[in-house]
Design goal:
Layout: H1 2-8, H2 35-51, E1 58-62, E2 72-76, E3 81-88, E4 98-105, E5 111-121, E6 127-134, E7 140-151, E8 158-167, E9 175-179, H3 183-197, E10 207-214, E11 220-234, E12 283-284, E13 301-305, H4 311-316, E14 321-323, H5 330-339, E15 342-345, E16 362-367, H6 378-389, E17 399-401, H7 407-411, E18 416-420, H8 430-441, E19 449-455, H9 460-473, H10 484-494, E20 500-504, H11 514-537, E21 541-546, E22 548-549, E23 553-559, E24 564-570, E25 573-574, E26 577-578, E27 585-590, E28 598-601, E29 608-610, E30 612-615, E31 618-624, E32 629-635, H12 640-680, H13 689-707, H14 711-735, E33 748-749, H15 751-755, H16 758-764, E34 795-798, E35 804-811, E36 821-828, H17 837-840, E37 841-846, E38 850-851, E39 856-868, E40 875-880, E41 889-891, E42 898-906, E43 911-912, E44 914-919, E45 922-933
Parallel strand pairs: 13-14, 13-20, 14-15, 15-16, 16-17, 17-18, 18-19, 19-20, 33-42
Antiparallel strand pairs: 1-11, 2-5, 3-4, 4-11, 5-10, 6-9, 6-11, 7-8, 7-10, 7-12, 21-23, 22-27, 23-24, 24-32, 25-26, 27-31, 28-29, 28-32, 30-31, 34-37, 35-36, 36-45, 37-44, 38-43, 39-42, 39-45, 40-41, 40-44
Length: about 950
């Protein structure tokens, strides 16, 4: 170590920036080195460093003057509770900002607060300093050390202990407290742990993951001000380097001798962490077999598909975990430990010993992210799971599988299953969404954790197509995210009390676009909603839905011991564009015995009491101006309202900020988009001035309420403004279509409208008319001859399944026009329905390829009639190779002929095909398929001007 200190004199210290929010870092500068002598000195430095196996230490500095506050309550034996925690702008030791904490404590000996850092080696060069001010003596600064292979049986987290340094002794004044030279203290602490835990304890590879302060100085209220935290001598765990320090601690029980079973508790919950005095008989990582759980049981875990966003920022949005696309690296593991985030990731091919001490954040290994796990891959997946079960115990984790079908067979060897919800553009009703989950999971015999995945954005191909259209026409890209259908789908998902919710994300939330910003706000608002509802859903079971009148709403019911939870979702709208019932009211029919119960409406993150009425012998609950999704609690115990209010208060401020900003975007675009469409002549409709002005005025009042701190009123006004602005946008979208296309919008796919990009649709309005389109480019598109079906024409393919049969036939009766049509059919051979979605997909029909040029717009028309398809997410899926299945239109319950029309833009492909998939038990008749390209007449030339 003396060699390292001598080396430091020759060059500036290396600083590693760990920056979540704007921070300032101090740099210790050494003497400047110039010219040949400088270069020679540098080479000597490198040589000495290599021979001494020195790894340069990093320094970290946080002024603690920026939002949000960083210190967290870690553990206490005095029932400590934060009363106030904020950042003061000008009360630091240097008159700058600082962090202040006020907490209440009973009798005890410790109330540990912690500032989490990336895991670093516990060596003598590691030093931490922080300025502390308090009215009481006794606060002590320390470093929290974790033993990655030794579990606390209560928390399932690695065992931890705090090594303390200086003590606060100057009441009323700032004092700089420090801790360092911890190697000898750590050896003593390890020896004591061995006496307590026995020789079987595995205390190898300890690391420091937090700066800690025992702030306890007596019962009652205590206030601390914290300023200028600095940590030096940091060497990250997992980086390849030989270090002098605490010698390796071995155990008579090697890692890998037993099978691991991870914790059930949330990694991120600070109150679960315990320090040494509370530990009783901890266990090694392989000794808790009965605790195997893929998802923590304390809450509904919110998981985001990771696209490179900072984990601290995702944490601030309310996420508990991230789903990685590849096995975790040392960098992401260190960041997860520092931020308290959990990780779900694909397993590595083989364990890396350099990472084994960092695996604590890994909650489960995830299979199915990059490939469709269908019936053909069951045996292959089973072999993969068996291989993972043979990993060394420190590497073993629960196995989470995301199959596309046969969930019961995959569940036989998984610890957790992920159900993939239907794409919202398919237009499933609330009842169909709920039933599709029940059908898919009904055959899972074993009790197993089930998560649900949702798409947090529109399909990726739709995004790319609209960007290409905007680039070609010089139109603006999308600036408005339609998030209401995501909220509604979430509520429908919550009817099943899932263990976790996985939000798929095609692009990073930090991409800098307006859509990414709004998506971040929407996901943050949704996470606050889940956090508020989750405690009441943990042990509730799904019950029969109640009947709703007054507006098309679905009312799901969850029953618990103390209350009934009502989840209302709107069915008003087209496909994935939903409207609130603002201005109207709905009545929920309740059982007569509930007439004396108390009901609370928690939509605005408050406990608004609403009366349960008995009218004409009917017990009912009336909701005035319902939002797109509503949450109602009904209980015979009126005292429950206080607990509901407390749960809502913890989330209301951030939820109000998110909803107010989201409604502001809706209002702004409703006004601007209408003005743009009217001024350009794209629509002859008049702007709904009263509706738009009401939205603008209401949002302005919501802003006043937010600035005054009335967050419940902010939410109530924001959702009303949101409802009116959304209604105005729907009216504009319909006005940008010809009258004949407005008849049944369910069977129309226009990329700008599908995304909600109304300015782009304004530019595209001429394409909605029939003039300007070419002749039909598809051979035998009328399907009037049996020869239409063949290798060089229309092709038919089907899945090889024992449980189903399918058929394709040319028919000369029952066609739409001409002389014939094609009939596709599928049926189960087992007596059980085929199901919907991927599981029910049986056969596919493809048209001949049509050659087109790049940057051309295509229109596909087809006449369709269906019969059968009685299960949810069944029917005939009409799509094309440019947009893919995710942009397709699902047709069912079409006993009469329906025209399906797809508009597509070709950016690079040289051919286009019309495609059809039959999903579930039923039949479909297809006729008069046309593919046309946009070939408008050239504009008339302007007359020459006489310049004389």
């Amino acid at each position: 170590m003396s060699q390292f200190n001598r080396v430091r004199q020759f060059f500036p210290a290396v600083i590693r920036f760990r920056q979540t929010f704007p921070l300032r870092f101090s740099i210790t500068n050494g003497p400047a080195i110039h010219g040949f002598a400088g270069r020679l000195a540098w080479m000597i430095v490198v040589a000495i460093g290599m021979t001494a196996n020195v790894f340069l230490r990093a320094e970290f500095y946080d002024r603690l003057d920026a939002f949000p506050p960083r210190w967290q309550l870690d553990t206490s034996d005095c029932d400590a509770r934060f009363i106030e925690h904020k950042v003061l702008p000008s009360s630091g030791h240097d008159n700058g900002g600082c962090e202040t904490i006020t907490f209440r404590a009973a009798l005890g000996s410790e109330a540990v607060i912690a500032y989490q850092i990336e895991p670093v080696h516990a060596i003598d060069d590691l030093n931490a300093n922080v300025y502390v001010l308090s009215a009481r003596r006794g606060a002590r600064v320390g470093l929290r050390v974790r033993f990655p292979y030794q579990r606390d049986p209560e928390t399932r987290r690695p065992l931890s202990t705090v090594l303390y340094g200086a003590t606060y002794e100057r009441p009323g004044k700032f004092q700089r407290l420090g801790v360092g030279k911890i190697e000898s203290d750590l050896l003593v602490r390890i020896a004591k742990l061995r006496q307590q835990l026995g020789t079987e304890a595995n205390l190898a590879d300890p690391y420091v993951d937090a700066v800690a302060i025992n702030a306890y100085s007596g019962a009652g209220l205590t206030t601390l001000r914290l300023d200028d935290l600095s940590v030096s001598g940091m060497v990250n765990v997992g980086e390849h380097a030989r270090l002098s320090g605490v010698p390796p601690v071995t155990s008579s029980k090697k890692l890998g001798d037993s099978e691991i079973t991870p914790r059930r508790q949330m990694l991120s919950a600070p109150k679960l962490v315990r320090s040494l005095p509370s530990v009783q008989s901890p266990a090694t990582v392989g000794e808790v077999e009965s605790a195997r759980s893929a998802f923590p049981q304390t809450s509904i875990v919110r998981i985001l598909e990771h696209r490179g966003e900072p984990l601290t920022w995702l944490r601030s949005l309310g996420f508990d975990a991230v789903l990685l696309a590849k096995p975790p690296s040392a960098d992401i593991l260190r960041e997860a430990i520092r931020t308290g985030m959990m990780i779900y990731a694909p397993p590595p091919i083989a364990p890396d010993p350099e990472l084994q001490s960092l695996l604590d954040p890994v909650m489960a290994w995830y299979l199915g992210g990059g490939v469709a796990l269908d019936q053909k891959r069951i045996e292959q997946t089973d072999r993969t799971v068996s291989r993972l079960r043979r990993f060394p115990s420190v590497w073993q984790r629960p196995i989470v599988i995301a199959p596309v079908e046969a969930m019961n067979r995959y569940a036989a060897f998984a610890d957790g299953i992920v159900f993939d919800s239907a794409t919202r553009s398919r237009g499933l009703t609330a009842t169909e969404q709920v039933q599709s989950y029940s059908i898919a999971c009904s055959r899972i015999v074993d009790r197993i954790d089930v998560a649900v995945s949702l798409e947090s954005s529109v399909p990726q191909r739709l995004l790319e197509m609209n960007r290409a259209i905007a680039d070609q026409n010089g139109a603006p890209e999308a600036n408005l995210f339609r998030w209401h259908s995501l909220l509604v789908q979430l509520y429908q998902t919550l009817e099943h009390s899932p263990a976790a919710i996985v939000f798929h994300s095609p692009e990073a939330l930090t991409s800098g676009t307006a859509i990414a910003h709004q998506r971040s706000l929407a996901l943050s608002y949704i996470n606050r909603t889940v956090a508020m509802l989750a405690p009441w859903m943990a042990w509730a079971e799904r019950s029969n839905p109640y009947t709703v009148s007054g507006a098309p709403y679905h009312c799901g019911v969850l029953q618990s011991d103390r209350a009934q939870l009502l989840l209302l979702t709107s069915n008003v709208g087209v496909r994935d564009q939903l409207l609130a019932g603002d201005g109207s009211s709905i009545e929920i029919q309740l059982p007569p015995e509930m007439a004396s119960y108390t009901a609370w409406r928690m939509t605005d993150f408050s406990t608004e009491r609403i009366p349960i009425q008995t009218i004409n012998g009917l017990t009912q609950l009336q909701i005035v101006s319902p939002d797109v999704a509503e949450f109602i609690v009904i209980s015979p115990d009126a005292r429950l309202g206080a607990q509901l209010s407390q749960a809502a208060r913890t989330q209301v401020k951030r939820a109000a900020a998110d909803r107010w900003q989201l409604s502001g975007e809706q209002v702004q675009h409703a006004q601007a988009d209408w003005q743009y469409a009217v001024s350009s002549g794209a629509t002859e409709a008049l702007m709904p001035v009263a509706l738009v002005n009401a939205a603008v005025d209401t949002h302005s009042r919501a802003e006043d309420a937010y600035r005054s701190g009335d967050f419940e009123t902010t939410l109530r006004l924001a959702r009303r403004a949101d409802a009116w602005a959304t209604r105005a946008n729907v009216q504009l979208g319909q006005s940008l279509l010809p009258n004949d296309l407005r008849q049944d919008i369910r069977y129309l796919s226009v990329p700008p409208l599908d995304e909600g990009n109304l300015p782009l649709q304004t530019v595209w309005r001429p394409l909605m008319d029939d003039r300007g389109w070419s002749r039909n480019l598809i051979a035998l598109g009328g399907l009037d001859q049996p020869q239409a079906i063949g290798p060089d024409n229309w092709t038919f393919g089907k899945r090889k399944l024992d449980r189903a049969e399918s058929d394709l036939a040319w028919i000369s009766r029952g066609f739409f026009s001409g002389a014939g049509a094609i009939r596709m059919s599928a049926a189960s051979t087992t007596g059980e329905p085929l199901g919907g979605g991927y599981a029910g997909t049986i056969a596919m029909l493809s048209s001949p390829a049509v050659r087109i040029e790049a940057q051309q717009t295509v229109r596909i028309d087809v006449m369709v009639r269906t019969l059968g398809f009685g299960q949810p997410h069944q029917g005939l899926l009409v799509y094309d190779n440019l947009g893919g299945q995710e942009m397709g239109v699902l047709v069912n319950d079409a006993t009469q002929w329906k025209r399906v029309r797809l508009y597509r833009h070709n950016s690079s492909d040289r051919q286009v095909k019309a495609m059809f998939e039959i999903i579930g038990d039923g039949e479909a008749v297809i006729d008069e398929v046309t593919i046309q390209v946009w070939e408008p007449d050239e504009l008339a030339k302007l007359p020459d001007l006489d310049v004389r």
